[in-house]
TrEMBL record:
This is Phosphate transport system permease protein. Residues 71-298 form the ABC transmembrane type-1 domain. Keywords: Cell membrane, Membrane, Phosphate transport, Transmembrane, Transmembrane helix, Transport. Belongs to the binding-protein-dependent transport system permease family. CysTW subfamily. It comes from Protaetiibacter larvae.
Length: 312
């Protein structure tokens, strides 16, 4: 009878133990911080869920009637920003990775990376002081000529500080994030896939459609979700540009616009006291849940095609 081979365990050196222990501590710290934030939000939000609605600012029928327009405004502004930013970001990414000369591609890449570092307050100042007055005549033209479309129904805003202006500002803010990530994913496409498509007679666009985009689809989803997370949580730019109201409206050019959860917290927290603070924290909990759900959906979408991912 042959004896079982003896397994020889490698001796762990001090550096190995320090590195593995540090990595474990860093990973555990993330979970602890996330749990701490969640516990704080839940504990501070409970009074808002249990309080008499008459004590909430504006005296809504219930807390959910208070937070409903805020959730709508947050999701609506972020969705509009994605609709504007995603096609432009994909076009820029493909141009940099597969069409532009190397020198031009490098310059555009650096410019996109620099745009991602611009503070949000700068975008807010630009949106409120430059974009809104400049685009207001265009809004007036839309309402005058396309007012029969519900999203352009009159009256028109006289200042240009509408939900559409906020969406444009948010689109400019998330454009560098989506573009930079998609560019890196497209550049990771195996050259053999591209050359095989070209060898079979495909044009450059057909090669991109058959080889580059399918390979980078999980990375594109990840980039879009990161941009969506930035748009959902943006505070100062929205607070500086938007003329807010507690309404649910799909009209893009109206003087009354739905506000967002972060902007509402930023505008009301300095003057809040007592139960008003708990109400604002409770709206922050709702935003936390929305963001967590968005990230979970992104991970699920990416994991469906993990074998093709250039981002995993």
């Amino acid at each position: 009878m042959t004896a079982a081979p003896v397994r020889i365990a490698a001796k762990k050196r001090l550096g190995d133990r320090l590195f593995s222990g540090g990595a474990l501590a860093a990973g555990s710290l993330i979970l602890v911080v996330l749990a701490g934030v969640a516990i704080f939000l839940v504990a501070q939000s409970l009074p808002a869920f249990l309080v008499d609605p008459s004590e909430i600012k504006g005296e809504p029928e219930s807390f959910w009637h208070y937070v409903g327009p805020l959730v709508f405004g947050t999701v609506w502004a972020a969705a509009l920003a994605l609709i504007i930013a995603v096609p432009i970001a994909l076009g820029i990414s493909l141009f940099i990775s597969h069409y532009a000369p190397r020198r031009l591609a490098q310059g555009l890449g650096y410019t996109i990376d620099l745009l991602a570092a611009v503070p949000s307050v700068v975008y807010g100042l630009w949106g409120a002081g430059v974009l809104a007055p400049a685009i207001q005549p265009f809004y007036a033209w839309l309402v005058e000529n396309l007012g029969w479309i519900p999203i352009f129904a009159p009256p028109v805003s006289g200042t240009g500080r509408t939900i559409l202006t906020v969406a444009i500002v948010l689109a400019v803010m998330i454009l560098p994030i989506i573009t930079a990530l998609c560019r890196e994913v497209f550049l990771q496409t195996p050259k053999l896939h591209e050359e095989a498509a070209l060898a079979l007679g495909a044009t450059r666009w057909e090669m991109i459609k058959m080889a580059v985009i399918p390979f980078g689809r999980p990375g594109i989803v990840s980039a879009i979700m990161l941009g969506l997370g930035r748009a959902l949580g943006e505070t100062m730019a929205v607070a500086m540009v938007l003329s807010p109201a507690f309404i649910i409206s799909f009209v893009l050019t109206s003087p009354q616009n739905p506000t967002t959860i972060p902007a509402n917290i930023a505008l009301n927290y300095p003057e809040a006291h007592g139960i008003d603070v708990n109400v604002l924290i409770a709206t922050g909990l709702i935003l936390f849940v929305i963001t967590f759900a968005v990230n979970s959906a992104a991970r699920w979408a990416v994991s469906r095609r993990k074998e093709f991912s250039g981002a995993n």
